[in-house]
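sry for the spam today, last one i promise. struct tokens for design, 62 residues
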């Protein structure tokens, strides 16, 4: 999530970062939550691989 110091007080975070999902999985202990977090992490890995495979994205700075 974005830092509360960097966003307006009325703004709600729309997404977790990969690091945020990892931290969340260390707090939530249910089997369902663990499986969901594993799948989310796999999604982040797939996106990272897709970006790495795209030659246009490699040369672009975001």
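last one done:
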């Amino acid at each position: 999530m974005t830092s509360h110091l960097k966003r307006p007080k009325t703004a709600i975070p729309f997404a977790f970062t990969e690091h945020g999902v990892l931290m969340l999985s260390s707090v939530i202990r249910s089997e369902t939550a663990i499986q969901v977090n594993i799948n989310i992490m796999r999604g982040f890995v797939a996106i990272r691989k897709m970006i790495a495979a795209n030659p246009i994205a490699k040369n672009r700075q975001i």
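Residues 22 and 37 are 8 Å apart (CA to CA). ok im logging off now
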